[in-house]
Amino acid sequence: MGGDFGPRITVPACLEALALHPELHIYLIGQSSLIDPLLANSNVSLKRLTVIDCQDFVSMDDKPSYALRHRQNSSMAKALQMVNEGAVSACVSAGNTGALMALSRKTLGMLPGVDRPAIISAVPTSEGCCYLLDLGANVDCSAEHLLQFALMGSGMVKAVEGIERPRVALLNIGTETYKGNEQVRLAAERLKVQPQLNYIGFIEADSVFDHCADVIVCDGFTGNIALKSSEGLARFIAAKLRINFSQNIYRRMLGWLARPVLKELQQQIDPGRRNGAAFLGLQGIVIKSHGGANQDHFVCAISQAVQDIHTDVPGRIRDTIASQLGQLSRE
Amino acid sequence: MGGDFGPRITVPACLEALALHPELHIYLIGQSSLIDPLLANSNVSLKRLTVIDCQDFVSMDDKPSYALRHRQNSSMAKALQMVNEGAVSACVSAGNTGALMALSRKTLGMLPGVDRPAIISAVPTSEGCCYLLDLGANVDCSAEHLLQFALMGSGMVKAVEGIERPRVALLNIGTETYKGNEQVRLAAERLKVQPQLNYIGFIEADSVFDHCADVIVCDGFTGNIALKSSEGLARFIAAKLRINFSQNIYRRMLGWLARPVLKELQQQIDPGRRNGAAFLGLQGIVIKSHGGANQDHFVCAISQAVQDIHTDVPGRIRDTIASQLGQLSRE
Q1: For chain B, how big is the Rg over CA atoms in Å?
Q2: Superkingdom, according to UniProt (chains A, B) (predicted)?
């Protein structure tokens, strides 16, 4: 029910995802009066799609505290309860991020040794991608929280990218050890003595896209600013390119000829192509789609959930954290 | 002496700036053995250029505290002393940012009512530019500091852009009043009751380029991350465009035809075009050029100094702060 477009985007995306992943079964939870008409002309076998009618839903304006108190019967809460009961393997939502985070935490609970969930997403780089966390779940973070994010991010990247020792960096405003705020400097001290981590030091925000790290750790305020700044600039550049290529007939023709090249660029920088941010640290898989996602983007979010199920991301994170806790108890 | 390239960039840039600004007189402070050969073949009248030999200089690795103790006879310190004595109207440097900030603060002193200097720079937007501060001088900021930054930024934009009531926004991870960390929320309470400010609320980082504010205020950690993330993405996109337009002969030809259009884009997003970040809150004008600036970029930094001298940026900031302090004392 969530996101800027609701079922008219999410339902067709589910049908596409079912065609893409033969082993997938999707439960659509929401107002069936809105969902059913969108399924009427579908040619995907409906044996793998179950609609669960649920009238209440979390609105985009609900504060997390309000959702916790008053939205326990919403489609979002119901989906998370199904993850908790083991009826489904993951929950995907384009809805209210704060409410999804609060309800996820309450319904699923945290993995042992993790204080707070973090939001992680892939960012394109010159040679593939890297993973950035936290992207907004925690505005203030201690060094201990940043350490937990590093362990979780490393565990996830091991699982989904198959990298044995992912390079972990801390996002900072300089690479010298004395740069940055106290939390970042303290976190650096903690990270560099963890044998579970391949910590490579501080990284500046302009190097995020240079593929010099696999996991980049920061507090949620910083991560959100980094991600959104680059999204804003990408939009700005796309708009400038459109204007520059339409100033006269010659340029318009040139733009038409160059369309495949420019389209390629658009795909390379489109954040939607990597849509589907995972909530790490929970006892279950929850994937948050961008609210403004189109159909293709929402399919990406579902595919991310499928991948996280296959590679058992929560299990890998549990192992990474447990190995660090084990080491602590031995010390 | 500073920056990645030293005199071989800064000296030719000075000659270009002298040709551009007929009223300008430049004092070049540094090792004359490096400077003089670069002036040998110049056709600019050397009546408007004075070389002051100074052997010591601040290295890019000097910590601010080290520079304060051991670099009082450096070219950087000497230039700031000349600003303080009124021998020159502004100091421009491509050197070590932390050292320049520490030496500026000690040599020039702060304007009354300002606790800390802030770094401000223009950022391109869809309809011109906006100004972002702080860009890295202060990693931790209280609400009071953010308020002072807002007043200083507003004073500067009034002066250099001629906007009577610049729109001031706080950079945050959401536009709702309950979003963000404590400092940002407290700052919002302070800003909205200032009659000197045209405060318009929170702004998200992806809207920075949309021209919805003239002054965007944040702590130095956040500002640095926002600016460098977008610089990194701009570089990433430029590299992708180069690759996409060189994959085969047809595309190479297309790229050659589209060169003027792409060059236009490069100029539109080139942060160097707006090179020259001002240190606000000091009793004098100090302009910091990007360390990696090329000759054109360094000319921009000198032009920024010329503009700040003509519009008396420190005076305008003093007035804005004094009017707020006056209001406080009346309350």
Answers
A1: 21
A2: Bacteria
CA-to-CA distance for B172 and B100, rounded, in angstroms? Answer: 28
pLDDT digits (tens, 9 = 90+) for B67-126: 999 999 999 999 999 999 999 999 999 999 999 999 999 999 999 999 999 999 999 898
- A97, with CB counted inside 10 A (0-12, 13-18, 19+), is buried
Q: Are B220 and B119 in contact (CB under 8 A)?
A: yes
CB-CB under 8 Å, A240 with B269 = yes
How far apart are alpha carbons B317 and B283 in whole angstroms?
Answer: 10
From the list B225, B236, B261, which residue is nearest A225 (CB)? Answer: B225
Q: Check if the beta carbon of residue A301 is closer than 8 Å to that of residue A293.
A: yes
- Cα separation, B279 vs B136, in Å, equals 11
Q: Is A178 on the interface with B (CB under 8 A)?
A: yes
**Residue B125 belongs to a domain with what CATH number?**
3.40.718.10
Chain B positions touching A181 (Cβ under 8 A) are 139-140, 221
- The answer to whether A66 faces chain B, any CB pair under 8 Å, is no
From A136, A227, A257, residue closest to B254, measured CB to CB: A257
Question: Does residue A288 sit within a domain?
Answer: no
Range of lowest pLDDT (A54-58, A230-234, A273-277, B266-270): B266-270
Residue A39 resides in a domain? no
- Partners of A273 on chain B (C-beta within 8 Å) are none
For residue A277, the model assigns a pLDDT of: 93
Nearest to A135 by CA among A321, A279, A295, A331: A279
Is A124 touching B (CB cutoff 8 A)? yes
Q: Is B225's CB within 8 Å of A229's CB?
A: yes
Could you report the per-residue pLDDT of B180-215, keeping only the tens digit for each?
999 999 999 999 999 989 999 999 999 999 999 999
Decide if A77 is inside a domain.
Answer: no
Say if residue B134 is preceded by a cis peptide, omega within 30 of 0. Answer: yes
Strand, coil or helix: what is B171? strand
Q: Which residue of B has its CA nearest to A221?
A: B173
Decide if A229 and B206 are in contact by the 8 Å CB cutoff: yes
Proportion of chain A above pLDDT 90, given as a percent: 68
Torsion on CA atoms A28, A30, A34, A37, rounded to nearest 10: 20
Write b or e for each residue in A177-201: b if 16 or more Cβ atoms lie within 10 A of its Cβ, otherwise e.
eebbbebbbbbbebbeebebbbbbb
Among all residues of chain A, which has the CA nearest to that of B240? A265
Q: How many domains does chain A have?
A: 1
Shortest alpha-carbon distance between residue A73 and chain B (Å): 25
CB contact A34 to B (< 8 Å)? no
Q: What is the ipTM of this complex?
A: 0.89
How many interface pairs between A and B have CB atoms less than 8 angstroms apart?
A: 155
Residue B203 lies in a domain: yes
Which residues constitute the domain of residue B197?
Answer: 117-274
Contacts of B234 in chain A (CB under 8 A): 233, 237
Instruction: For residues B177 and B310, give the distance between their C-alpha atoms in angstroms, rounded to a whole number.
Output: 39
A309 close to B (CB below 8 A) = no
